[in-house]
User: Which sequence fits this backbone?
């Protein structure tokens, strides 16, 4: 039998508002446990919630960026369930009237094929607290309780781990670009619930789905999809009965484990939240928010290809990170060379960031300084080799490349007469190696260049070195 995987995702996004969704407590990450709390977010008797308007604005902004229909009438509901980190024993969320419906995002697969992933709904809700386990006890930190969330519910349009990851990456790119969330998975501000089932390819009926909760990395999402697909296929082939259930990812053993049978909507006893007024959203509000949405990833990518003549790959990487894209454009404005700018950013700078596990904005590198470095190389003031050597100083110290070159005496030597004398001296001292080179040991050419650059302390113009070295060997040693 041939099977098809069917995937839908529920993506929970923490909004980067300064205060919580129903009270004035701070949402700052990393505070001491249970210090950012009040009677409202602790669910104490008599405490009344007040909806944070910024959360509503961010929800509308997200819906518009994801091509959703925005509700003109919406309301909050209570979702009743008991869990230790839920201080109220219910969650304030949205059931029948979510703020956004029927959107879509487009992903581009590795083979270049594009696919539209439907979004069923987006709704607002409050987060729960956090359980902290050790070997003997479990503690609860309620700082996160009441942090505003958007839940983005996709349609079951994905069929592989690749598609699921591309979809979440696209969401993350859009959400960070429009400024509603930092989407830091390592801090829990973007979490994914995976709904997955398998069915025979020819069947029109969907399989029995399992929900894997709270996946907080792309690696775990990929592993969970692949493991759960194989688990379900094996169960079907062995004539085992599958049932709807909620599972968790065991990262130590790389398996999913059953937690409980999957709840249905009626199990939560949804009913309207009586302490929060219904909302009427006007056309003017929607249009005002729409006007604040910046250029999105796919729009930026197309423009970069057309305006800067970038490759599809380079444009894709830059456009996914709006900060990196902005840095690239500022660099180009400074040096007027898009090809050199993208080569430095995608090459040496990316290597430095990856090796040091840093984001660009965590360094002292300025676009103006990178542009200045590129111009120094273009104007043959320094060589690209020298440029690479001083790049770390520019990144870590934030100094001007001109100042570094002046301080360290690194101005490139373009004096052909002086370079020729240097070349003749090296060839004269190493005539045995010249003979070996002429007899076919071609890799010695690189050795000669290295010796010249060493003697010049890296200052000799490489193009002049190559031109004069070849000429000297051909004319005086053959």
Assistant:
């Amino acid at each position: 039998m041939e099977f098809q995987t069917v995937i839908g995702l529920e993506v929970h996004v923490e909004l980067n508002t300064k205060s919580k969704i129903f009270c004035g407590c701070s949402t700052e990450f990393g505070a001491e446990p249970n210090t950012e709390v009040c009677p409202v977010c602790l669910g104490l008797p008599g405490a009344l919630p007040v909806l944070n308007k910024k959360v509503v604005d961010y929800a509308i902004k997200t819906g518009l960026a994801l091509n959703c229909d925005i509700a003109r009438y919406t309301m909050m509901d209570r979702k009743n369930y008991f869990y230790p980190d839920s201080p109220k024993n219910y969650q304030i969320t949205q059931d029948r009237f979510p703020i956004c419906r029927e959107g879509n995002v487009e992903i581009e697969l590795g083979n270049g094929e594009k696919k539209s992933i439907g979004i069923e709904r987006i709704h607002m809700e409050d987060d729960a607290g956090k359980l902290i386990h050790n070997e003997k006890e479990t503690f609860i930190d309620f700082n996160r309780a009441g942090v505003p969330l958007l839940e983005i519910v996709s349609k079951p349009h994905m069929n592989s781990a690749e598609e699921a990851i591309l979809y979440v990456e696209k969401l993350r790119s859009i959400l960070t670009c429009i400024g509603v969330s930092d989407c830091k998975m390592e801090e829990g501000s973007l979490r994914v619930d995976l709904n997955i089932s398998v069915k025979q390819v020819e069947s029109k009926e969907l399989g029995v789905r399992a929900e894997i909760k709270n996946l907080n990395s792309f690696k775990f999402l990929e592993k969970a999809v692949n493991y759960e697909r194989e688990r379900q296929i094996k169960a079907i082939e062995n004539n085992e009965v599958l049932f709807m259930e909620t599972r968790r990812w065991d990262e130590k053993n790389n398996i999913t484990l059953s937690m409980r049978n999957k709840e249905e909507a009626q199990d939560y006893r949804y009913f309207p939240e009586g302490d929060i007024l219904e909302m009427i959203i006007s056309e003017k509000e929607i249009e005002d928010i729409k006007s604040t949405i910046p250029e999105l990833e796919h729009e930026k990518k197309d423009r970069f290809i057309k305006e800067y003549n970038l490759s599809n790959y380079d444009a894709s990487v830059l456009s996914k990170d709006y900060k990196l894209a902005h840095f690239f454009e500022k660099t180009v404005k400074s040096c007027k060379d898009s090809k050199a700018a993208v080569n430095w950013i995608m090459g040496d700078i990316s290597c430095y960031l990856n090796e040091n596990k840093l984001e660009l904005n965590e360094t002292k590198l300025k676009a103006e300084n990178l542009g200045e470095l590129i111009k120094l190389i273009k104007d043959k003031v320094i060589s690209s080799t020298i440029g690479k050597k001083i790049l770390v100083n520019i990144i870590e110290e934030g100094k001007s490349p001109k100042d570094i070159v002046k301080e360290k005496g690194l101005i490139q030597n373009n004096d052909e007469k002086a370079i020729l004398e240097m070349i003749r001296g090296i060839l004269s001292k190493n005539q045995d190696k010249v003979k070996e080179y002429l007899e076919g040991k071609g890799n010695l050419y690189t050795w000669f260049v290295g010796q010249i650059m060493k003697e010049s302390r890296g200052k000799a113009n490489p193009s002049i070195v190559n031109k004069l070295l070849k000429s000297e060997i051909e004319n005086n040693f053959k």
Notes: The two ends are 72 Å apart (CA to CA). The chain has three domains: 3-289, 297-408, 416-476. Residues 218-237 form the longest helix (20 residues).
